[in-house]
Amino acid sequence: MAERAKVKLHTMLGNYPNTKALKSGEIRSDLVEFDFAEVKVANNLFKNVVREAAYDVAELAIVTYLQAKTYGTPYVLLPAVVVGRGQHHTIAYNADRGALRPSELAGKRVGVRAYTVTTGTWVRGILAQDYGVDLDKVEWITFEDPHVGEYRDPDVVKRAPPGKELVQMLLDGELDAAVVGDKLPDPRLRHLIPNPDEAARKWAQSHGGVPINHMVVVRENIANSRPDVAKELFRLLLASKSAVKSPTDTTALDPLRFGVEACRPTLEIIIDYCVRQKLLPRKIPVDTLFDDTRALWRHDEAWAIVTFGCSPMDWSRCLSARAPIAAGAV
Known about the structure:
By secondary structure, this protein is an alpha/beta fold.
């Protein structure tokens, strides 16, 4: 009998330590091969995913996926995190213009690349929940359209004038604070949330995990017609992640969680934040997000790894204990 040809997957996946083994070919498959799109910054390609369904497999910001699912995007979500991080350090103010505390944001102008970006959603939720900020009393200034074309920003969101840039507006005093990302882009800027790294660590420990930024989606018709391909994709992503050892593995501080139960706590939180911030019309149950994914593994021993994030050596313990014992264990 002739060997079955490998399935080629047009794939958009960022360049991270946890994806290096897969993208370099160090981890291989007898079932699938990858046609990797050139990626400099993954979020620049998210519109291509949700507006054009341009890839068979793609990394996608979780808020973008949640919104796209509402409008019927033809992708299935895998319980595989490829980017996660604490969010407390990503919002800043210009110290040259005086000190600013989170409790003083009412009536202020706060910049964010787009209202729908996942980092901004996490930051607003944390500010509201942990620092008492009334988000409706803040004027949110944006610079880009949402990834999902059908979505319209709420009334508290205003667009910056054409030609204006977020960091320069912050330095010039046209913004009081801004979500600037992972690193402060100017020495005059200071973190709005005091001791952000410690605050993020405590948040993760008390909320069951590090905030999720990006997960992986696979084209719906591929997942339905070739469940073996979806299973193999999940296996390869987990193997690539496992090739990089980290002291946070299997703890609440692991930013790269695999398995439904491992991801559940932070997914429930971001869904709640989305509804409160008018990014979603209603809550989506976490189990609903993975109905299609679980169906692929329903009668397979690998069900344990998808549900609980267990490594293959732990499948028997997962199946008997019905508890997250690996990537989601806290």
